[in-house]
Amino acid sequence: MRRALGIAAVVAAVALAGCGGGGDDGGSTEKLSHEALVRRANAACRTASASVARIPAAGSIDELGDYAASVGAVGERLAGELSRLTPSQPDATSYGRFLDALRASNAQLRTLRQAADAGDRDAVASAARKIANAEPGTYAAVIGLDVCAAATPSPDS
Amino acid sequence: MPRRTPIASIAVTCLAAAGLAAAAHATTGVGTGLPQPRVDVAHSDGDQFVGRYAIGEIDRRAKITSGQLQIDYTDTRKPFLIGSLAIFGYDDDGRQQSSHSITYPYRFGDETLSAPVISQGTYQRIGALRLPVPTDPDELHGQLTWRGGTYQVAFDRLPASDLQTELPQAKQIDPVPLRLRHDGLGPTDADWYGRWRLVPSTADAGRTASIYAPLVRIASAIGDDATVADSGSLLLFEVESRTEPPRPGGMMTVHAPGQTRAEFLTDFRWDGPWRSAIVRGGSDEGPVVGRFLARVSGDRLVGTLTNGDFRVELTFARGGR
């Protein structure tokens, strides 16, 4: 699985690298310095984390589907924003792995939503474990994205 | 007629049925056909648990009459901890039952070694084992989750070389008494005063899930029907009164997915390592709504807060804001 992620990341990195550009903090096709990448990715994660923290928590499996949908919308938006950032070559592989982890989490999140809507607790727990095992926070930490790496606090009910 | 089972037969049965490639070698580890766990337990943490043990004491509600636990590192290229658990007891109808399980994969955190208990027949999770770092090298005290209940259990180390001794009958003990023997927090209440911080459990499934952490926690809690606290604190202090002697009081906050709770603790009692308090709602003079029961483990308080349907395991360490 890790190897598959790595291959996907390399492919993504090559594709991203082909987009060209050379500025430090510029538009979507410019390769970003490590500092600029960290700054912009962390800013996106900060916004996403705050959005997730404001979503009222589900208190039962009946509410979980809607909650997962709300979190999923934020996750999809974040993945989209981060995909538009072009890392410089030294960061490309690690950044690609982080994006892959986000996308894998978003895919499992859709599964979790379906399981919740079906009232299937075992499938809910399984999907939750798969999101946890995707470890987007771990991959974010590898590249120094400390805001993206931090676990978002749980909301109050 | 209690079951008397030679330890050797259990060891062989357990490890063979577990799919382990080699029989037990008490000092050299075991082989295994199981996948490498995602998390390793370092030898510096795991070695203190390695060995063969018999159940010495068990909460009588577990209906377990005897049992053996063996924990060892594998002989694989990258050794990992694995255990076998043989349990003999009886069901609700009094019929004798036996069970052979694997304890795997092990994790070490919060000064506690833990692992799911996996059925050897179905490879389904059927329980859990939690073992705090032993204070006596010949004993393990912990909790066994088994058939829907969680029970205090004590294991006694067995001689590594003796595989013929009959498995001893486990002493049946009553659950932790509802009323501990002594008033207060301990021999000297003041030793316990101050602020304690919640030690986030390594069981927090969301800790590496970035923005998905709340979802993972909530979904895990709903899916697995378990609550995990992610932050909190405990303040223990002296309550003064004009008419009564000073007594301990407590204020606990617990933040878990979907809720933040503030609990007032009164009526502290202690007995050996155990500490208990009444949980009151609204204020320290409010109605009794629950109970906090903890065990002193090193410099930590490891316990369970129950308040109606809310039940959460908590570990507190000195300090915090």
Describe this structure in words.
The complex is a heterodimer of chains A (157) and B (321). Chain A has 157 residues and is mainly alpha-helical. Chain A has one domain (2-149): Up-down Bundle (A middle domain of Talin 1), CATH 1.20.1420. In chain A, 73% of the residues lie in helices and 3% in strands. Chain A contains seven helices and two strands, in the order αβααβαααα. Chain A has a two-stranded parallel sheet. In chain A, helix 4 packs antiparallel against helix 6. Chain A is elongated, with a radius of gyration of 16 Å. By secondary structure, chain B is mainly β. Chain B folds into two domains: 7-173, Lipocalin (Beta Barrel); 182-318, Lipocalin, CATH 2.40.128. Chain B has three helices and 19 strands. In chain B, strands 1-2-3-4-6-7-8-9 form an eight-stranded antiparallel β-barrel. In chain B, strands 12-13-14-15-16-17-18-19 form an eight-stranded antiparallel beta barrel. In chain B, a hairpin with a 7-residue loop joins strand 16 and strand 17. Chain B is globular, with a radius of gyration of 21 Å. Chain B starts with 6 loop residues before the first helix and ends with a strand. The model of chain B is unreliable at 1-29 (pLDDT under 50). The A-B interface holds A 45, 48-49, 52-53, 55, 57-61, 64, 67-68, 71, 74-75, 78, 102, 105, 109, 112, 116, 121-129, 131-138, 140, 148-157 and B 38, 204-220, 222-225, 230-231, 255-260.
- Percentage of residues in DSSP E strands of chain B: over 45%
- Which stretches of chain A of 5+ consecutive residues score pLDDT under 50? 1-27
Terminal Cα span of chain B: 57 Å
Mean pLDDT of chain A: 81
Number of strands of chain B: 19
- Please give the most extensive interface between any two protein chains, plus how many residues each contributes: A-B, 51 and 30 residues
Question: Could you state the oligomeric state of the chains shown?
Answer: heterodimer
CATH class of chain A: Mainly Alpha
Largest sheet of chain B: 8 strands, antiparallel, barrel
Q: What is the H/E string of chain B?
A: HHEEEEEEEEEEEEHEEEEEEE
CATH-derived topology of the largest domain in chain B: Lipocalin
What is the CA-based Rg of chain A, rounded? Answer: 16 Å
- Alpha-carbon Rg of chain B, integer: 21 Å
Q: Name the CATH class of the largest domain in chain B.
A: Mainly Beta
Beta strand count of chain A: 2
